[in-house]
């Protein structure tokens, strides 16, 4: 579920691997390895979702406009997290019942998406 949220937050593209390529270069990786790392980033890619995770993903996508944001210097925005009151309204408006397991999935996806939206590249 976290990977699905990262995929959404990245606009359907893989993560930016430019820093990893720079690090590999500094550490003396062969040029072809550095080029392969650079080539990984920015590609559009498909993302498969298991059927049992589909309802949680649909719920997450129903509330992707409900982020609390903080404006920062230079026109940047910090994504603080989902506004849970608004998420409840968004889910209700779509006829989605919010049970505890769904909230747990939403919170896991929220954390992964928030990090990606704020430029933090992570993996599980």
Automatic annotation (TrEMBL):
InterPro entries, A to Z: Phage_TLS_TfmB
Recorded superkingdom: Bacteria
Residue ranges of the region described as Disordered: 1-24
Protein name in the entry: DUF1799 domain-containing protein
